[in-house]
């Protein structure tokens, strides 16, 4: 049986609406933390002009492969092993990076390493256009939750793992800026989530 995320089903179309525009001139997307593989299948289906490369920890690869095998999409790549704690990332030269629902799961140092790795990967691409980064998930603004649901969600995350939790928008933007990214968009999504878009300066 394929793994299934109800959240992916709810947010895939709102995310796609933004990515249709933001990734219009993109050739190769590296997805960090592909999870179940549902986003990859949906984006690959509706963005046939680009190649969508999945990646995650090895424990998630079987589930991702099941989704990809059922979909049979020629423009979606089988999952590559990627651990943000390791300095060696897959040898790719993407012109875009996408990650969803990762920042609040991993620790803050891992968020920092993810952003640094994304910048390295994008800078390696031999393209004239600037590399792009899209980050989806819940964020706090001015130190405040955007809704009671996020407050409860954050408490649950921190009880399960004190190093996880909803990140502050301002801290994420500042860290991204330190890696050479400039924020170009912040789109509100359903269920108090946001899709942040960046380009490399």
Could you report the average pLDDT, rounded to the nearest whole number?
A: 96
Instruction: Give the strand order of the largest sheet, numbering strands 1, 2, ... along the chain.
Output: 3-2-1-4-5-9-8
- Which shape, going by the Cα principal axes? globular
Strand content: 15-25%
Number of helices: 6
Percent helix, as a range, is 25-40%
Order of helices and strands: HEHEHEEHEEHEHEE
**CATH architecture tag:** 3-Layer(aba) Sandwich
First-last Cα distance: 43 Å
Supply the helix-strand structural class.
alpha/beta
DSSP strand tally: 9
CATH topology: Rossmann fold
Ranges where pLDDT stays below 50 over 5 or more residues in a row are none
- Rg for CA atoms: 16 Å
Give the SSE map:
Layout: H1 6-22, E1 28-32, H2 38-46, E2 51-56, H3 61-71, E3 76-81, E4 96-100, H4 108-124, E5 132-137, E6 139-140, H5 148-160, E7 167-168, H6 169-178, E8 181-189, E9 193-200
Parallel strand pairs: 1-2, 1-4, 2-3, 4-5, 6-7
Antiparallel strand pairs: 5-9, 8-9
Write a concise keyword list for the protein shown above.
9 strands; two-stranded parallel sheet; 24% strand; 201 residues; seven-stranded mixed sheet
Notes on the structure:
By secondary structure, this protein is an alpha/beta fold. The chain has one domain (6-200): 3-Layer(aba) Sandwich (Rossmann fold), CATH 3.40.50.150. The protein is 38% helix and 24% strand. The chain has 6 helices and 9 strands, in the order αβαβαββαββαβαββ. The protein has a 7-stranded mixed β-sheet, sandwiched between helices. Strands 6-7 form a two-stranded parallel sheet. The radius of gyration is 16 Å and the shape is globular. The mean pLDDT is 96.
């Amino acid at each position: 049986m394929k793994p299934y995320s109800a959240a992916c089903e709810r947010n895939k179309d709102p995310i796609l609406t933004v990515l249709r525009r933001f990734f219009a001139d993109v050739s190769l997307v590296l997805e960090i933390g592909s999870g179940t593989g549902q986003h990859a299948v949906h984006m690959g289906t509706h963005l046939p002009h680009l190649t969508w490369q999945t990646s995650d920890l090895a424990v998630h690869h079987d589930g991702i492969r099941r989704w990809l095998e059922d979909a049979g999409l020629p423009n979606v790549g089988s999952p590559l092993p990627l651990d943000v704690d390791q300095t060696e990332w897959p040898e790719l030269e993407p012109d875009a990076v996408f990650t969803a629902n990762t920042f609040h799961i991993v620790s803050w140092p891992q968020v920092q390493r993810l952003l640094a790795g994304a910048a390295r990967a994008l800078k390696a691409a031999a393209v004239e256009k600037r590399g792009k980064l899209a980050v989806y998930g819940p964020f706090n603004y001015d130190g405040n939750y955007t809704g009671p649901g996020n407050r409860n969600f954050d408490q649950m995350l921190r009880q399960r793992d004190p190093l996880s939790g909803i990140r502050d928008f301002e801290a994420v933007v500042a860290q991204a800026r330190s890696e050479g990214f400039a924020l170009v968009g912040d789109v509100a999504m359903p269920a108090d989530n946001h899709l942040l878009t960046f380009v490399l300066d």
